[in-house]
Amino acid sequence: MNIKSLLLGSAAALIAVSGARAADAVVVAEPEPAEYVKICDVYGAGYFYIPGTETCLRIGGYLRYDIGVGDSGTLDGVNNVADRMDGDSNDTYYKNMRFTLRTYTGQETELGTLKTFTETRFQFGNSSGDYDGSSSTGWQASNNRADGTSKTSLNFAWIQLGGLRVGKDETVYDQFIGYAGNVIQDTLIPFGVKDTNLISYYFDAGSGFTGVVSLEEGTGANTIDSYVPHVVGGLKYKSDWGAITGVVAYDSNYEEVAGKVRLDVNVGKELTLFVMGGYGTDDNINDFGTGRTQYKPWGGNWAIWGGGTYKFNDKTSFNAQISYDDWKNLGVAANVAYTIVPGYTITAEVDYLNAGKFDDADFNNWTKANKKSSVGGILRFQRSF
Fold it and tell me: What is the annotated signal peptide range for this record (predicted)?
């Protein structure tokens, strides 16, 4: 009995000691629940909250593959190369692949909505109208053809608080009034030079009226040559039937004025039409410049654009545009766009350009192929997300 009691007592002592040590052991904290991304539907589809912040973010963009043939349009005309065997000049396709990355942010503050937008383009092609003519961006200076070198460009990068926007944007002169239709080559007769740094203010006057005032720096040869900026203003009235928009611009380099007026009409659910006219002074431009500026890039004093879109169904639409200017330059563009599946569209377009009045210095800017009349076509594949 004594031995048995001794063994039982020892076992009890060991259990007690083990219990004491277990009580003193470090307790591992359970992992905190994961913070999943939350949907933000304040600014539209695709936004989500950046974890730990009140900022909503959206990431989007597109991939686009263009195949062009012929002479006409801003894909820069005939892509002729020397035959590798006999040296003769041969025409061939001009192509461009583009990946565009876009970011959008939005956040509510005591001073209004704080928004940002960026767009960066990465490109590779043997000819593309987005190349600016310098050898560093993929051009061969000797023959004005893109050599296949890739190019990256920052097309948008702006910050907007309330109605005040600052940064890199397209000129208000173009984006506020709208572009010249839903055709690919909408600049057969150009209506504006897009890129610029700016400070602009947008306001809503109520009852369908909105407006904007913008101080702009211009780009390239149209960059301001003093501390005086280019000035652009616009006013729009929008209703269920369509819209009326006007913009006016003061070019501080040449002290010239240009403006455009546009009418959009919703004829029905299937058909929308537009007409846009532009007029600009050119006395100082003709004396000291080339006859064109950032805000009057067409030939002569006036130009007109018109066209529309007809939707056959949810997947297929027909788009057309015709344009004409004071120098008797005529442009015609038409395409059929077909959405195979949501987010993936194929567009086939035909373009025609007839050059009217021109001089030797401007000739290649209009026809590229050294022809009075030129025809071209584009097949575009685009996946948007």
Answer: 1-22
